[in-house]
Amino acid sequence: MINPSKSGRAGPRIRQEQRTIDAMLGIYCQDHHGGGRGLCDDCEQLRLYAHQRLNACPFQEQKPVCNRCEVHCYSPSRRERVRDVMRYAGPRMPLRHPWLALLHMLDKLRRVPSLAPLRARTKRGAAADSGAGGEKRSKP
Ligand SMILES: [Zn+2]
């Protein structure tokens, strides 16, 4: 486990991703499973799983959008289902959740980080944090 935040308190980036997956699942479930309010059991399971994976994401605030990430943290079957959900809900997001969709578009422009320097850094301790291009620094 390389998860730096053991408190389980996710940063804004992760929370936004969680809202996005919630919204996408909402769209998908409503149109496929006809649930009036809330998600059906299957989709709720998938939602909880996605939230867990996000909480455990080694990139946390540097997280790229999931489909460009080099870490495949989903189990194959869940991954397949989430991909379905995103394929369906993705194009519908701007209509139903314009703000989240916009944020997600912006996230797609992020540089995709690699795990290699992240591993090196955690090994060395979080002392030297330079060399990352200096584009973003947010320390709690
Ligand atoms: Zn459903």
Q: Can you put this structure into words, describing what you see?
A:
- There is one protein chain.
- This protein is mostly helical.
- It has one domain.
- The protein has six helices and no strands.
- The chain has helices at residues 12-33, 41-55, 76-89, 93-96, 98-108, 115-124.
- It starts with 11 loop residues before the first helix and ends in a 16-residue tail after the last helix.
- Residues 1-7 and 125-137 have low confidence and may be disordered.
- The protein binds zinc ion.
Summarize the model shown.
The protein is mainly α and 140 residues long. 54% of the residues lie in helices and 0% in strands. Zinc ion binds at residues 29, 33, 35, 39-40, 42-43.
List keywords for this structure.
6 helices; 140 residues; disordered N terminus; globular
Any low-confidence stretches, pLDDT <50, length ≥5?
1-7, 125-137
The SSE order reads HHHHHH
Count of runs of 4 or more consecutive helical residues: 6
State the shape.
globular
DSSP strand (E) fraction?
under 5%
**Mean of pLDDT:** 78
Bound molecules: zinc ion
Largest sheet features? none
Our Rg estimate from Cα atoms comes to: 16 Å
Our measurement of the CA-to-CA distance between the termini, rounded to an integer number of angstroms, reads 21 Å
How many DSSP-defined strands?
0
Structural category: mainly alpha
Give the domain tally: 1
Helix amount, in percent?
Answer: 40-55%
